[in-house]
Amino acid sequence: MNDTHRAFLDDLLSTATPSGFETPGQRVWLDYVAEFADETHVDDYGNAVAVYEGDPDAPSIALAGHGDEIGLMVRDITDDGFLKLARIGGSDKTVTRGQYVTIHTDDGPIEGVVGQVAIHLREAEDNEYDEINEQYVDIGVEDEEAAQELVDIGDPITFDTEITDLADGRVAARGMDNRVGTWTAAEAFRRAVEAEPDATVYAVSTVQEEIGLRGARMVGFDLAPDAVVATDVTHATDQPDSPATKGSGIELGGGPVVARGSANHPKLVAAARTAAGDDDIDIQLQASGSFTGTDADAFYTSKGGIPSLNVGLPNRYMHTPAEVIDLGDLDEAADLLAAVAVRADEFSPFSVDV
To answer: Rounded to a whole number, what is the distance in angstroms from the first to the last CA of the chain?
Structure first.
């Protein structure tokens, strides 16, 4: 990964995009892909698409990731000026207490902290985790009126964290889920375009995946490509406290993860495995017997059924302020998606033989 590609990743990670408030991140993404695209467009809810126009007689394939992240929201303001919270997506109540946060207001960011009673003052029975709607943010004001001058009900909130390089090419940050997916879609698009494929190739950054795959439903219906590869994070279960009953064998540094079953079309699974073998790309396999939990689940039921595949990026500590990924996995995921797109006409038609 060169400096330009890493700077793009860092720009995505440092731009807050909680579900329903994705516009700043979508602009970062569009500015990057526009340089390689024949055209770009955005729909009314902010789903962003870049297009490479191939041969009209060749298949079309979309490379997608979701641009939104989980977060919090101002639900109410107390008489004392504290901000009561609601969740945006699957925020984890066990990691919110004592965190620095940013409230994203129409007039700019406001800093705060999620309150936590000091350990010296807590009784043993108070060590349970409060639900998020029982937690609050302290922005330092004296009363409700002062708070209302700074924030509004419904303002989104994200953790205020740093992008941190760990050893051996690992990186920690908030919102790897799913900036790594939109990075992969954009970078795979760039690499595919350089090869001038016959296929028409779309790069897509969807909105509102974290609250129900909603953007993918819109885009799938609108574009109706011949195939979609949706890239999202998946659980790396190689940390010490990963539950044995939910272990998947997925490891950081083992390469991107090709899911099998449910939404994952067997022709696309075979295409990804073939491309990986031919291009010497390390991949891991994952069982997905009922659903993927990603945009692939929405794409494959759109427009009468779009052959779809979920490619996962191994991620430790998902939905925390310190998600960890391996940059090598990220680069190989972009190579994999690009290889499938470039050879789309070879792998098509994307239909099962019955």
So the answer is: 42
Is 165 among the domain residues? no
Query: What count of other Cβ atoms lies within 10 Å of the Cβ of residue 153?
Result: 13
**How far apart (Å, rounded) are the C-alpha atoms in residues 72 and 203?**
28
- Is-cis flag, bond preceding 127, omega within 30? no
Last residue of some domain: 101, 130, 159? Answer: 159
- Classify residue 280 as left (phi > 0), alpha (psi -120 to 50) or beta: left
pLDDT of residue 129: 86
CATH code, 96: 2.40.30.40
If 0-12 CB within 10 Å is exposed, 13-18 middle and 19+ buried, where does residue 2 land? exposed
Q: Could you tell me if 179 and 95 lie in one domain?
A: no
Contact yes or no for 285/270 (Cβ under 8 A): no
The pTM (predicted TM-score) of the whole model is 0.96
**125 has catalytic annotation:** no
d(CA 78, CA 319): 27
Same domain, 223 and 278: yes
Q: Rounded to whole angstroms, how far apart are CA atoms 347 and 343?
A: 6
Catalytic residue among 209, 210, 323, 332: 209
- Considering the domain architecture, whether residues 78 and 63 belong to the same structural domain is answered as no
Mean pLDDT of the chain: 96
Q: What percent of the chain has pLDDT over 90?
A: 91
Element (DSSP H or E) covering residue 165: strand 164-165
CA distance to 111, 173, 219, 296, 352, per residue, from 349 (Å)? 52, 39, 21, 19, 9
Host domain of residue 76: 71-159
